From TrEMBL:
The complex is composed of two ATP-binding proteins (BtuD), two transmembrane proteins (BtuC) and a solute-binding protein (BtuF). NCBIfam families: PRK03784.1. GO terms for molecular function: vitamin transmembrane transporter activity. Belongs to the binding-protein-dependent transport system permease family. FecCD subfamily. It comes from Photobacterium angustum. One of its GO terms (biological process) is cobalamin transport. The lineage of its organism: Bacteria, Pseudomonadati, Pseudomonadota, Gammaproteobacteria, Vibrionales. This is Vitamin B12 import system permease protein BtuC. The gene is btuC.
Length: 330
């Protein structure tokens, strides 16, 4: 079988997977808008109550889940290439923890409630700092993949410890916000906070277009430079975009783990490693997975919402353990 035939088959698999994921995403979105304490037909809400419930609660929550899931999944895929570590993910590496730690500092030291924009840029700063630490360590030959992963986990634990300490020095309102950021929740998202989407969507679109450059970068820095790629500029651009996306995700919903780990890994396992296809598919699948997790968090308990971070961790932790065991066997 010729190389051209193999390439054509591979591309047809990617295209089929793209339309399959898009179709499933549409179904999942309609189901998420419909289900809850009150069943609603999204295309024909009956009465003012259903319209308000749909427009003020469920639709903002759905849009936030799509944007956050897409941001975390695509960021995870990029980090796995940048760090050369298939287990890299914003939550596991402590990047999300760095963003939330910066938010806690702002919450405690500012005499007023931060605006959505200030929240996003604060979280972005924390995520950027932790990302730079990890990328800097990954370029040192003395730091193995396992040690880098452990450093990231330690940074995440340190962030969680500081946030937990903050509970004992906060008032009731601050404590609720801290719990919101620590456990991950989409319950408080409103249209004002969704103004962050004007930043998230363009950055996400640009990030998903970096796949061909990432494919070249995977050949090694020397080969990438010989092919005309400015590796330093590309690395900094990717770091900034990942930091903005992770910071925005944390600002909207707190720490939500394992989306950036599970989604890219499973797509690579099933379809291959071409980043020009992997990044957009990861974004779509990540958004869909978080919508499913958020829907489950709303319907599993009849009287309360589960934190969506609990649901994603319950789904992702077994996959993470399996990946660690698989890497050990390899």
């Amino acid at each position: 079988m010729s190389l051209n035939v193999l390439l054509a088959r591979q591309q047809s698999r990617w295209r089929f997977s793209f339309w399959l994921i898009v179709s499933l995403l549409i179904v999942v979105c309609f189901f998420s808008l419909s289900v809850g304490e009150l069943w609603i037909k999204p295309w024909a809400p009956e009465g003012d109550l259903e319209q308000q419930l749909l427009l003020q609660l469920r639709l903002p929550r759905l849009l936030a889940a799509l944007a956050i899931g897409a941001s975390l999944a695509s960021s995870g895929a990029v980090l796995q290439v940048l760090l050369g570590n298939p287990l890299a993910e914003p939550g596991v590496l402590g990047i999300s923890g760095g963003a939330s730690l910066a938010l806690v500092a702002v919450l405690f030291f500012l005499p007023f409630a931060p605006s959505p924009m200030l929240t996003m840029f604060t979280a972005m700063g924390g995520a950027l700092l932790f990302t730079m630490i990890l990328v800097g360590l990954s370029r040192r030959r003395s730091v193995s993949m396992t040690r880098l992963l452990l450093i990231g986990v330690a940074l995440g634990i340190l962030s969680s410890a500081v946030i937990t300490w903050a509970f004992y020095f906060s008032d009731d309102l601050s404590m609720r916000q801290l719990m919101y950021w620590l456990m991950g929740s989409l319950g408080g998202v409103n249209w004002q906070q969704l103004s962050l989407l004007f930043f998230i969507v363009p950055v996400l679109a640009v990030l998903c277009c970096q796949g061909e450059k990432l494919d070249i970068l995977m050949l090694g820095e020397l080969h990438a430079r010989q092919l005309g790629l400015n590796v330093t500029t590309l690395r900094w651009k990717l770091i900034l975009m990942v930091s903005l996306l992770v910071g925005s995700a944390v600002a909207l919903a707190g720490i939500i783990g394992f989306i950036g780990l599970v989604v890219p890994h499973l797509i690579r396992l099933m379809l291959g490693t071409e980043n020009r296809f992997l990044l957009p598919l990861s974004a779509l699948a990540g958004g869909g997975l978080l919508v499913v997790a958020d829907t489950l968090s709303r319907i599993l308990l009849p009287s309360a919402d589960l934190p969506v971070g609990v649901v994603t961790t319950s789904l992702g932790a077994p996959v993470f353990i399996w990946m660690l065991m698989r890497a050990e066997l390899d």
